[in-house]
């Protein structure tokens, strides 16, 4: 146990920790910060976000016919409010814009009307005039929800078709605004990048470090002998879990600033977004992506350690991992994290990929351990 | 000379670096070949330039219109409905030619609608520039609109080129392809330069190597070797990638076309170069700028290596340096000219190769003298940095 503790301490030198913090700060400002400080990103995203909260508190996790009528009624009431606003506003009355309908039909060529429109939309940012089009958009989605599933079903393969039928018979249609879902996907994708890079950064030197300092001669002739290899492996895995957990806590702590907890218990099939194979709630989907990140982190840690005990020097160690990391970031992560249950990805692809990656990385490290047991270290 | 050769050999006998080099080069080739399906359609622009000359003049447009009408007559003669392959090709070609004709005809109209000073205003609003930064920006856009007027007078933009919308060949070549080349070269160069510089420490030969007659002057050879290796790597990737590109896409009659060609209008704004340069000149300038940046980056990596003496940290510190320089302008208040000065850095430069020498860019990158000032300023910084690190190494405790 004590040796394990010391090995973990050897991984987290102050230099590596400093580099870890700086690298994450850079990646944060480069890729993550935007999805936190710009959520919701202007209007009508803000209105979409607000209307979503209102819908969830009113209609819950299931929006039936009556709810949709109610939503329509809310729209009509708000149109009346808009009418009143316009009528009580002298400027609009003079410009000949007395109703919301007139407002929608404002002629762009008419300078006076266009200026008034810009004034309440952009300068004063009157809420109802931003909310109304957003509600209208959602109502359009509500009216075409069956047709949309139908279009997707037409181009689907038998398995996808069965899934669409299942959704139709359960009455699962996309009715809630998508801002939160989209934002979370962007956020978690970039968090996955930061964590992947951090894991590789921390774990890669594990075996290389002692070997390049020629410590192995000493270490392998102690009573513990070559078993130390396994202790270092364990130290590497524990450190990986620690780093992933710490970074997830930090990043999700920032994500909490987005205030999306009202959405957490809504099943993801309610959002106007891509279709999925399963029906988790948003919170369950988040948990799934987090599990995926842990899995990827462990796989990349195992790979990093295998390379660490194989490569002749640090340059080769970084060099060989560059293609793996870049390939994962540019091609893999969308499938393995954000689109993990997306209906466009065949149902078997994601579980198979994960099983394959885990199998390869575990076999690789076992092979490396077998090799280490007999390796001639006096070279 | 021998020593430099042997130093280079250290990088070029590393199997991983060679493997990376080949992997990246084949990836680029694959990337280019996989987009070659639009090759057939792209031929039309080349044909037009070949037939009517690369410049679009009133005469050539008249000639073009006559030919089009002639083709239309031919089209009407075909009354059968079971078209042959050649006829179908003729239809699509005619359709494309008509589109090019319309685009060429519309140039004056579209260019007259552009008001650069107004675009400058909206840029200032968008990035919330104020104070002296806003003034600088305004002045620069006044200069750009003068340049734009000059362009409209001498008709340099009236040249045939691949239609920017929908093909976006400028972005594909100078953003996607060049971006890949830059990023890939940079990774290999960073690894190679660090490998060469720290080789003696990594392999515990430093006590021997630095006590020979050559002694610590060996570091100078290592710098030269790093630069030479970087040259070889970038030239190799560039030649293979651009070679494939120009073998796949035919530019034969378009080399002399202007880089600010009005047909090359991809997004909201047309490409407006500060100088009247042709496509081939722009290509050469881009290659030179990329090459100069690579050399400067190599020397920076060399200096980091000397200070850190650990390859692992060198690589990541360089990556952080690159990214921080990229982020830098974002952290500076947009009220002073400091924000533009921060933009004059190599990371900003190499991240936007499609905007080299262009005025329709944003931030400091749109300034007329951006490219050469960046290169010159950083040459001075890098030379100083290399000098300091070499000096430092002379007295460093290497035990």
From TrEMBL, chain A:
Keyword Methyltransferase part of the UniProt annotation: no
Superkingdom assignment: Bacteria
Regions that span the bilayer: 12-32, 187-208, 233-257, 282-303, 315-336, 348-369
Keywords for the protein's UniProt record, in alphabetical order: Membrane, Transmembrane, Transmembrane helix
Identification of the protein by name: ABC transporter permease
Lineage: Bacteria, Bacillati, Bacillota, Bacilli, Bacillales
UniProtKB/TrEMBL annotation, chain B:
Keyword Cell membrane assigned: no
The protein, known as: ABC transporter permease
N-terminal signal peptide: none
Bilayer-spanning residue ranges: 12-33, 172-196, 223-248, 282-308, 315-344, 372-390
Domain of life: Bacteria
Organism, as annotated: Paenibacillus plantiphilus
Keywords from the UniProt entry: Membrane, Transmembrane, Transmembrane helix
């Amino acid at each position: 146990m004590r040796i394990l503790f010391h090995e973990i301490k050897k991984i987290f030198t102050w230099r590596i920790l400093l580099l870890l913090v700086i690298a994450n700060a850079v990646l944060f400002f480069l890729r993550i910060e935007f999805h936190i400080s710009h959520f919701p990103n202007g209007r009508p995203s803000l209105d979409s976000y607000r209307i979503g909260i209102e819908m969830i508190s009113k209609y819950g996790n299931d929006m039936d016919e009556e709810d949709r009528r109610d939503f329509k009624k809310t729209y009509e009431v708000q149109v009346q409010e808009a009418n009143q606003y316009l009528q009580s506003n002298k400027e609009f009355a003079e410009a000949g814009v007395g109703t919301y309908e007139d407002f929608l039909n404002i002629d762009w060529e008419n300078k006076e009307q266009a200026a008034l429109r810009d004034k309440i939309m952009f300068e004063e940012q009157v809420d109802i005039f931003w909310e109304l089009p957003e509600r209208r958009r959602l109502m359009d989605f509500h009216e075409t929800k069956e047709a949309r599933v139908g279009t997707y079903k037409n181009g689907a393969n038998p398995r996808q078709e069965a899934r669409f039928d299942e959704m139709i018979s359960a009455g699962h249609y996309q009715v809630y605004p998508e801002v939160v879902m989209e934002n979370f996907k962007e956020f978690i994708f970039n968090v996955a990048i930061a964590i992947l890079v951090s894991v590789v950064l921390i774990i890669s030197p594990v075996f290389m470090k002692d070997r390049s300092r020629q410590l192995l001669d000493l270490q392998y002739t102690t009573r513990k002998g070559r078993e130390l290899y396994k202790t270092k492996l364990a130290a590497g895995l524990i450190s990986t879990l620690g780093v992933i957990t710490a970074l997830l806590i930090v990043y999700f702590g920032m994500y909490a600033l987005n205030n999306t907890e009202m959405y957490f218990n809504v099943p993801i099939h309610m959002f106007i977004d891509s279709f999925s194979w399963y029906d988790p709630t948003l919170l369950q989907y988040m948990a799934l992506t987090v599990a995926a990140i842990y899995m990827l982190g462990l796989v990349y840690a195992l790979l990093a350690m295998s390379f660490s005990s194989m490569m002749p020097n640090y340059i080769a160690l970084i060099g060989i991992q560059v293609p793996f990391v870049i390939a994962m970031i540019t091609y893999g992560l969308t499938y393995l994290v954000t689109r993990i249950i997306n209906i466009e990805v065949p149902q078997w692809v994601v579980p198979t990929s994960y099983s394959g990656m885990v199998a390869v990385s575990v076999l690789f490290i076992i092979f490396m351990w077998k090799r280490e047991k007999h390796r001639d270290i006096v070279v | 000379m021998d020593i430099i050769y042997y130093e280079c050999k250290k990088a070029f006998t590393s199997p991983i670096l060679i493997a990376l080099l080949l992997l990246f080069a084949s990836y680029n080739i694959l990337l280019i070949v996989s987009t070659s399906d639009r090759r057939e359609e792209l031929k039309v622009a080349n044909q037009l330039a070949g037939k009517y000359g690369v410049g679009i003049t009133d005469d050539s447009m008249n000639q073009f219109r006559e030919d089009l009408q002639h083709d239309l007559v031919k089209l009407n003669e075909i009354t059968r409905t079971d078209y042959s392959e050649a006829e179908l090709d003729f239809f699509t070609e005619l359709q494309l030619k008509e589109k090019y004709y319309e685009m060429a005809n519309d140039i004056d109209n579209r260019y007259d609608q552009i008001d650069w000073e107004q675009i400058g205003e909206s840029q200032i609003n968008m990035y919330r520039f104020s104070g002296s930064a806003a003034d600088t920006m305004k002045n620069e856009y006044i200069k750009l609109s003068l340049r734009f007027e000059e362009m409209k007078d001498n008709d340099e933009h009236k040249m045939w080129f691949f239609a920017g919308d929908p093909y976006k060949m400028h972005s594909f070549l100078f953003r996607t392809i060049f971006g890949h080349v830059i990023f890939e070269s940079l990774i290999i160069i960073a690894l190679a330069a660090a490998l060469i510089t720290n080789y003696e420490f990594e392999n515990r030969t430093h006590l021997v190597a630095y006590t020979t007659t050559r002694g610590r002057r060996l570091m100078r050879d290592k710098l030269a070797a790093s630069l030479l290796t970087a040259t070889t790597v970038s030239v190799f990737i560039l030649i293979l990638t651009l070679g494939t590109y120009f073998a796949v896409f035919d530019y034969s009659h378009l080399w002399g076309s202007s880089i600010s060609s009005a047909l090359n209008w991809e997004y909201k704004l047309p490409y407006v170069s500060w100088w009247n340069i042709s496509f081939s000149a722009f290509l050469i300038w881009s290659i030179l700028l990329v090459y100069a940046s690579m050399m400067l980056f190599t020397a920076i990596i060399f200096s980091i290596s000397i200070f850190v003496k650990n390859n692992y940290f060198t690589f990541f510190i360089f990556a952080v340096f690159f990214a921080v320089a990229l982020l830098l302008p974002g952290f500076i208040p947009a009220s002073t000219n400091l924000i533009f000065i921060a933009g004059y850095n190599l990371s900003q430069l190499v991240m936007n190769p499609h905007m080299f020498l262009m005025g329709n860019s944003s931030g400091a990158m749109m300034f007329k003298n951006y490219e050469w000032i960046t290169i010159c300023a950083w040459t001075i910084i890098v030379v100083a940095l290399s000098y300091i690190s070499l000096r430092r190494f002379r007295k460093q405790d290497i035990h």
